[in-house]
């Protein structure tokens, strides 16, 4: 593993990598090809056009963006996911700070208790959550969805940020303490600016929860069309009887590309294991 | 020192953690309690609203509270109340598992697994000896042979059949566990191979490969759309069969065949999850000092020996948490299988389909048959499973180590 691999070994390595890359990328490429194929065909008819764009039209994109509701759906998703992110961060950052900096009775219990709660899968609490939201009059409403997502993200965000606060040396805050800083000042003026990277990563991951979710969105906001979120709306589009495949593919590509970019940007943070405890594959 | 100690400290902590506590109480703890309560009622499509005359309903179900009363849907069938008998849903789900036949069958399967546990105990003990007399592969092979012999002797298939007839619960959980057992090692192996190759600094374009190979995991945040694309590949007229047709082979209807469908769900979920392992293992590999390998080279250790005796043991602490967490998420996998098969193909009316895993089963119970009582009871049982798994994972991952210091 340290000496230069032999020619044969390198050949095998590159072969594995290239095959893996094709497998990793082809589904995405397939969606891109289908999105530009004229005539609403999902599949290519001949071998070359299964791999290369032999014909191309922007009609599907035009339709999805201007004639269909895709932009509304994406705006809905954007709205719900952003509010979720902000709410979750505001609520969990201060708690994470307190859990990291103070020692108090019940702290260990609280931390473990949160993880135990996390073991209750969101899908399974859906009956109860739907009941609560119906009672509050928030069914088929974006606010209800935001509430549901926010609590789904809370535990993960708190743990993640607490872990990061733990790694920030306490010296700075001790210096501040001696100068008479209150906990609130120390939190806002010292710890928060230092935790920016963790805040950014946590925010992005929280955002993706709302952005990519299917179950909650499809159940809690089943109708009307204008209120739907992008992912469930597109999924429903693909399950209609006469499916406009080109439209679906174009919509999927429009949703996937920004998601991919965000994730590829996140990759460098994830590599360090910053969020290993919270992110699962 | 204002607020850092004494009575002020208490209020500071309270102020900092109050929002989280409230959020968790209202939207995590309370739904769990309500969920457990509903699991003892006969709530279903025809009985959507609570019978507020009943004390527990009045106490626990928000639709009975005066503040929310006007939000209750009206004119929808009869009210629901506690089931008759109160454990009816649980009886429907797992009742048959406690019959004498089923317990015997479970015991039979347990007995067949005993050699494997024995092997792991013996192997651990031998590990501590300075020069081990028997290599571990011999012990494990012996255990496996013994296990198979026992299985043949005790007629494990009959036991399996008995258990499969005890109802949906065993079928669904068993299939889900099979799925986890097959999927996790597979993504681990692929992730390991790719991470080791990419760790080699003589490979040109490592960053490019890393980014491209990372795409599936990026796509997994909108898993349901990407899994739909995979479903297109495996349709009867799909891409795979088109490719096969160019070689003159008539492809099968992949997703209508129970075995193929199961395999395809595993394949696609491996596709989604191997980058996570690739990333985690890659991170762990960079932390191994190269001197260790240099020393091994000098001693003439083969590639395989280096992998087995240096790489794997050294990345173990970093990888174990990843494996445990992945297993728990794999157990709860929903989007991939929903987009691919919706739990099908179905072999008989009223039976779970062959890829109907835990979450799919719950989803179908809730939204297709609207059998809320049964679904919530199922949720409670699955929660007990997952809670145990989470506690175990905490021990393994030591994620909570900092919590007590």
Intertermini distance of chain B = 23 Å
- Total DSSP E strands of chain B: 2
CATH topology of the largest domain in chain B: MetI-like fold
Number of helices, where a helix is a run of at least 4 consecutive DSSP H or I residues of chain A:
13
Uncertain parts of chain A? 273-281
Structural class of chain B: mainly alpha
Oligomer: heterodimer
Mind telling me the CATH superfamily name of the largest domain in chain B? MetI-like
Q: Write out the CATH superfamily name of the largest domain in chain A.
A: MetI-like
CATH topology of the largest domain in chain A: the name is MetI-like fold
Low-confidence spans of chain B: none
- CATH class of the largest domain in chain A, please? Mainly Alpha
Task: State the helicity of chain A in percent bands.
Answer: over 70%
Structural class of chain A: mainly alpha
Percent of residues in beta strands of chain A: under 5%
In total, the number of domains of chain B comes to 3
Radius of gyration of chain B, CA atoms, in whole angstroms: 26 Å
At CATH's second level, what is the architecture of the largest domain in chain B?
Orthogonal Bundle
Fraction of residues in H or I helices of chain B: 55-70%
Summarize the model shown.
The complex is a heterodimer of chains A (281) and B (405). Chain A is mainly α and 281 residues long. Helices cover 72% and strands 0% of the residues of chain A.
Question: Secondary structure elements and their pairing?
Answer:
The complex is a heterodimer of chains A (281) and B (405).
Chain A: H1 7-35, H2 48-51, H3 59-67, H4 70-101, H5 107-118, H6 126-135, H7 142-167, H8 171-178, H9 183-194, H10 196-212, H11 215-220, H12 230-238, H13 245-271
Chain B: H1 6-38, E1 49-50, H2 55-60, E2 79-80, H3 88-94, H4 100-128, H5 136-153, H6 156-164, H7 168-198, H8 206-219, H9 223-233, H10 239-246, H11 258-286, H12 290-298, H13 303-331, H14 335-340, H15 358-367, H16 372-397, H17 401-404
Parallel strand pairs in B: 1-2
């Amino acid at each position: 593993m340290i000496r230069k691999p032999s020619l044969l070994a390198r050949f095998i390595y590159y072969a594995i990598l290239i095959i893996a890359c094709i497998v990793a990328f082809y589904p995405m490429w397939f969606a891109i090809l289908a999105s530009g194929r004229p005539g609403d065909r999902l599949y290519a008819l001949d071998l070359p056009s299964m791999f290369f764009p032999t014909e191309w039209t922007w009609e599907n994109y035009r339709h999805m963006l201007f004639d269909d509701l895709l932009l509304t759906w994406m705006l809905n998703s954007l709205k719900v996911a952003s509010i979720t992110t902000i709410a979750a961060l505001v609520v969990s950052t201060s708690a994470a700070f307190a859990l990291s900096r103070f020692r108090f009775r019940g702290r260990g219990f609280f931390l473990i208790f949160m993880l135990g709660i996390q073991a209750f899968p969101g899908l399974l609490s859906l009956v109860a959550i739907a009941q609560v939201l119906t009672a509050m009059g928030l069914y088929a409403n974006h606010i209800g969805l935001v509430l549901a997502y926010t609590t789904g993200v809370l535990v993960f965000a708190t743990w993640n940020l607490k872990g990061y606060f733990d790694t920030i040396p306490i010296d700075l805050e001790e210096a501040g303490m001696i100068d008479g800083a209150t906990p609130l000042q120390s939190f806002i003026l010292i710890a928060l600016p230092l935790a920016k990277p963790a805040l950014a990563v946590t925010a992005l991951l929280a955002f993706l929860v709302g952005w990519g979710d299917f179950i909650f969105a499809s159940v809690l906001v089943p109708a009307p069309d204008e209120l739907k979120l992008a992912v469930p709306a597109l999924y429903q589009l693909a399950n209609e009887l006469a499916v406009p495949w080109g439209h679906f593919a174009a919509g999927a590509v429009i949703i996937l590309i920004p998601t991919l970019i965000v994730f590829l940007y996140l990759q460098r943070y994830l590599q360090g294991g910053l969020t290993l405890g919270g992110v699962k594959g | 020192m204002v607020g850092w100690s004494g009575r002020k400290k208490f209020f500071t902590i309270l102020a900092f953690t109050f929002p989280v506590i409230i959020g968790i109480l209202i939207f995590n703890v309370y739904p769990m309690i309500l969920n457990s309560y509903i699991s003892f009622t006969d709530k279903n499509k025809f009985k959507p609203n609570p019978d507020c005359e009943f004390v527990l309903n009045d106490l626990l179900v928000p639709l009975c509270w005066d503040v929310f009363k006007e939000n209750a849907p009206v004119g929808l069938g009869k009210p629901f109340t506690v089931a008759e008998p109160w454990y009816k849903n649980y009886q429907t789900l797992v009742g048959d598992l406690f019959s004498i036949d089923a317990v015997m069958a479970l015991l039979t399967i347990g007995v067949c697994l005993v050699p494997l546990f024995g092997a792991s105990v013996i192997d651990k003990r031998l590990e501590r000896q300075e020069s081990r007399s028997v290599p571990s592969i011999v012990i494990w092979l012996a255990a496996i042979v013994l296990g198979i012999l026992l299985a043949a002797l005790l007629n494990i298939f009959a036991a399996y059949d008995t258990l499969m007839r005890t109802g949906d619960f065993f079928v669904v959980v068993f299939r889900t566990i099979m799925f986890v057992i097959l999927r996790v090692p597979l993504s681990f192996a692929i992730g390991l191979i790719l991470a080791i190759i990419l760790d080699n600094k003589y490979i040109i374009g490592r960053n490019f490969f890393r980014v491209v190979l990372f795409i599936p995991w990026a796509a997994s945040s909108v898993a349901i759309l990407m899994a739909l694309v995979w479903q297109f590949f495996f349709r009867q007229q799909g891409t795979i069969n088109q490719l096969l047709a160019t070689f003159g082979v008539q492809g099968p209807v992949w997703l209508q065949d129970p075995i193929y469908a199961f395999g395809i769900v595993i394949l696609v979920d491996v596709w989604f999850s191997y980058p996570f392992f690739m990333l985690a293992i890659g991170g762990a590999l960079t932390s191994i000092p190269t001197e260790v390998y240099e020393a091994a080279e000098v001693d003439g250790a083969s590639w395989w020996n280096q992998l087995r005796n240096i790489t794997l043991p050294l990345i173990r602490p970093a990888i174990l948490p990843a494996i445990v967490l992945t297993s728990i998420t794999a157990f709860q996998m929903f989007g991939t299988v929903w987009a691919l098969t919706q739990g099908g193909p179905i072999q008989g009316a009223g039976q779970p389909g062959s890829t109907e895993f835990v979450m799919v089963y719950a989803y179908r119970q809730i939204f297709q048959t609207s059998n809320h009582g049964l679904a919530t009871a199922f949720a409670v049982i699955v929660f007990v499973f997952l809670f145990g798994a989470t506690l175990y994972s905490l021990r393994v991952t030591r994620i909570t180590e900092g919590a007590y210091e």
